[in-house]
Amino acid sequence: MRPTVRLLTGTALAVAVAGQIAAPAYGADPGGLELRPSTVVPGGEVAAGTAACGDGGSAAGDAGAVGAGRFTLAPGGPRGGAAGRFRVPPSAQPGTYEIVARCAADGREVRGDLVVALGTGVRGQVQPHGSVKTGVGGALGPDPVQTAAGVAALAVAAAGGTWLLHRRARGDGI
Q: 28 pLDDT exceeds 80?
């Protein structure tokens, strides 16, 4: 039993150490495309910036994946890099979109992920509204007359069933 425990413990320790060595540090790529906010609602504005183009560098951005088209990143951004803005169209669907920028000087391409969501939680969630189109009718339809007729039919069936069970319990038969 002891050799098995030592073997398992040694294996677990080796895997943990290897995971720490091989794991990349958070934020290790200083040349990525920073998007702020990284989660936005349709119609919101996004600021994009990168230090990958160097001091005083500029870039051409492409937010076509989300439907916002092209935008320019001019010098004067974060850490001396390039910065620009674009607006997410109100018709954008929720999901994750890749935004790309290409440095003007050397053609280096940087990427960033933008999440489009119904609500950000900062100013409150956007609540879903409307009905779900499943092909099966709901409990309360749009017609109050049909709803009342359905309730009346259920009441008659319940009363008739109770009456029949009561007669059967007394022995009167059906």
A: no
